Amino acid sequence: MRAAVYRRPGPAAEVLEVVELEVPEPGPGQVRVRIATSGINPTDWKTRAGFAGRTPDWFQVPHHDGAGVVDAVGDGVTDLQVGQRVWLYLAAFHNRYGTAAEFAVVPAERAVPLPDGASDDLGACLGIPALTAAHCLGGNPGELAGRTVLVAGGAGAVGHFAIELAKHAGARVVATVSSDEKRALAEKAGADLVVRYTDPDAARRIRDVAGPVDRIVEVALATNLDLDMAVLGAPGTIAVYATEGELALPVGEFMKANTTLEFVLLYGVSPHRLAAAVRWTSDALARGALSALPVLPHSLDEVARAHETAEQAPPGKVVLRLAAH
């Protein structure tokens, strides 16, 4: 099979190459998926670049997320069938075969049925962003009905799905963005109110329209801390899924408001809570509540260029298309 690999961390153009590999066989509890579309997340290019401090022991096929068709099943797999469309998550986690290849072999629980009405591009957009969003929203859609959620960075991948999942659960959703282009994306996702986080009256507008916020899905806590504190209700929760370096926290103010501060990294989420996020995402997907981000497609041979594009954090989702669309 043709696959993108890297054998050491470093710049995309220096370490990524497309090679021929033997098609891997699924072991017990695993499935093999013929990949149609492979999604690129920040964690994918950051790991390749060396920010995770890991060097492959032989080679690594990158990318956690993707969509395709089950090609073979290992012993003990009963919930998936050959020929079934699926979306994948955490494919490259403790696994040599990520989705940047014609085939990937993954544990069966990381391959989730993809409805006929959902495109491969949408399937490849899910994975880490949608599951992170569901977890940051509390993992239980039944607890969000009638609540108010603030999504910081509403045009990003996690922000996009946080808006759609929260709206599907019956929440009122406010989103912050940094440009008119991103405002349009957050509004298209269904946010009830979209404001620029740099506007001096952002907090007032949020309070006037939405009142105190029950939960914040936060991408940049240091940048947004003052705004978050100005609009968060008491008690309230801030779920943080991205890093900005060191930060001094107003512990006394948080204590007075009984604020809950959660730090979220999907790799460390318990299997029980991860399964809850998968269920929420799958239910919303089946009901047509989730949509693909604007897609920036590349071929497998353009994998280095695709990584370089993803590093620039453009609006939308950078993907590799391995099958005809």
TrEMBL record:
Annotated keywords: NADP, Oxidoreductase
The UniProt record lists the keyword Metal-binding: no
EC identifiers of the protein: 1.6.5.5
Keyword Oxidoreductase in record: yes
InterPro entries noted in UniProt: ADH-like_C (IPR013149), ADH-like_N (IPR013154), ER (IPR020843), GroES-like_sf (IPR011032), NAD(P)-bd_dom_sf (IPR036291), Zinc-ADH_QOR/CCCR (IPR051603)
Domain Enoyl reductase (ER): 12-320
Domain of life: Bacteria
Name by which UniProt lists this protein: NADPH2:quinone reductase
Organism for this UniProt entry: Amycolatopsis thermophila
